[in-house]
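Field notebook, page 473. I keep forgetting to write these up properly, so this time I am using the form the group agreed on. The chain and the ligand, pyridoxal-5'-phosphate, are recorded exactly as supplied. Prediction of the bound pose follows.
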Amino acid sequence: MEHQKLPEMGRAEDDILGQLKSFADNDPNYRDGRTWSLVYHLDDAHDAFIAKAYSAFSSANGLNPATFQSLKRMESEIISTMAGLLHGGPDTCGVVTAGGTESCLMAVKTYRDMARKQRKVTRPNMILPKTAHVAWFKAAEYFGVKARILPMTAEYATDISRLKRMINAGTVMILGSAPEYPHGTIDPIAEMGAIAQSKGISLHIDACVGGMILPFMERNGVDLPDWDFRIPGVTSISADLHKYGYAAKGASTILYRNLELLKHQMFVCQDWPGGVFASPALLGTRPGGAYAAAWAVMQKLGVEGYCRLARDTCDAVDKLKTGIAAIDGLRVLGHPQGPLLAYGSTDPKLNIYAVADQLEQAGWSINRVQNPDGIHCMVTAKHLHVADEYLADLAQAVATARAHPELAKTGGAATYGMMAHVPLRGMVKSKVLDVFAEMYRAGGGALTLNDSKPPNLMERGMARYVQWKTRRG
Ligand SMILES: *Cc1c(COP(=O)(O)O)cnc(C)c1O
């Protein structure tokens, strides 16, 4: 196999930009609101504005906050604005990161190191709701902090009845989500805060998805429980700007109640031959363009703009909730309070993943959840204009999946059903790793997660088992 070569001579800019544009031909159609995850898009004019702000600082580097004072100013103003929105106190401080995952990873590192220093904890654990974002399980693995799991109630909320008893000498933090990603439920933060405070354990709130919309929903008069720094036990919050902040990708925040906490996040190396080094978060070079774009978008939208977008988003969510409830055999999972929801099947004869396949055929980009199986909708303001069309296609998809039960055994329905229900989870993990890794094989690898290899004996047996389970409901 020959590797790709750099062009011997540089190419003309127009030619390159044209080719780049063509690369996007098969990308999800987010401009028309056909994607239900990954993208938070307003319109092309907004993207153009972001690009201008981004490009003005695309070479600037926030690595050393003392060097580019412009970036430090933007970072300070973004953090201070967030501290205000999230009802922080006078000492609330924080750092702009490159994304929600970086923010979550940093919280785990911070509390692990704090417990190590203050309480000599050598075998750390943290208490996570079952519905915690996958970034927290990544952090557990990366940083060697054992995840202890709070189960879900029958209605997919976090069951905190055992929380107090689960805290032990090695517990470095507790997590609550506002809202959680799988079903859009806000965890019982006030109760968790009281327990955390009584036990002297840090409580982080993952508001990566909620941080830039819940405050504006509240301003719009939506009745929400308190979940932010107003709860005394809350010690830190992560909130993304590149989701409902409508900023360019690569911008999130992590806020701490005070600098004493944030200090444990920082890294200092005084002996490096490259110079004395200090860094506030995971990245080395920090992208100035992302800071500038995030700062600019906050100034452009303001409270009025974010409230308007939150209102459209909530209207779209309400439309979807009502429309889904009206389709026989479907129900929304749990009680989502934020901008997202998931729905599943109430009828053993209706396979929700087969419905998902049908929606994809109708041109929607669909995200699937599991345990219970469902279809996920990360709803943005843009979806208000397509909600009716989506619901009509959904009704049609349900009718088709009902009329053709064999669809559950083919395509995505079969693959996702298998991945969700094979009881040997270790086997699923190694299979997913194999197939996923193929996408990174030298030369570009596979373009999809579809597995082309014929199933081995064990896999065939598992497929039969899953089909049998599915038939039994
Ligand atoms: C999106 C999300 C994250 C991770 O954020 P990324 O920006 O995708 O890294 C973490 N927690 C929650 C609740 C999220 O929705």
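OBSERVATIONS:
- The chain is about 45% helix and 15% strand.
- Residues 99-101, 104, 133, 135, 177, 181, 206, 208-209, 240, 252 surround pyridoxal-5'-phosphate (CB under 6 Å).
FOLLOW-UP: compare against the apo run.
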